[in-house]
Design goal:
Layout lengths: L8 H48 L7 H11 L3 E8 L2 E10 L2 E9 L12
Antiparallel strand pairs: 1-2, 2-3
Helix pairs in contact: 1-2
């Protein structure tokens, strides 16, 4: 009976499938985590740019880049760069994930200053 020689091959196949599933999951988890951090850093950059623009326009008292730094820190990120052109603020925010620095830039200013949709 030749089919008896195949006995136990199903167990080997199941072990191989489980190992492949674990390997793929192990590779995808860090990528998924990086995407979450990327979205969080983009939101932190938006908040920092808005805080700096509000301060630069005189709506909020203080120093624009200091306000941007505080907003970034509250979002668990670090202000990497802050530049002002009148009341328009351009900021870069970063956060460390594993061995990578994830950076997001945002620009904000008063209406009509050409800042609509400018998030990179």
């Amino acid at each position: 009976m030749p089919w008896r020689a195949e006995r136990g091959s199903g167990s080997v196949l199941v072990v191989a499938l489980v190992a492949a599933t674990v390997a793929v999951t192990g590779m995808l988890l860090p990528v998924a985590g990086a995407l979450v951090v990327r979205h969080r850093v983009a939101a932190a950059a938006d908040s920092a740019a808005l805080a700096a623009a509000d301060t630069a326009s005189g709506l909020v008292p203080g120093y624009p880049c200091e306000a941007a730094s505080t907003a970034a820190r509250l979002a668990r990120a670090t202000l990497a760069d802050c530049a002002l052109n009148g009341a328009v603020a351009v900021v870069a925010v970063s956060e460390r994930y594993l061995v990578f620095d994830i950076v997001a830039r945002a620009r904000a200013g008063p209406a009509g200053s050409g800042t609509t949709g400018e998030v990179r």
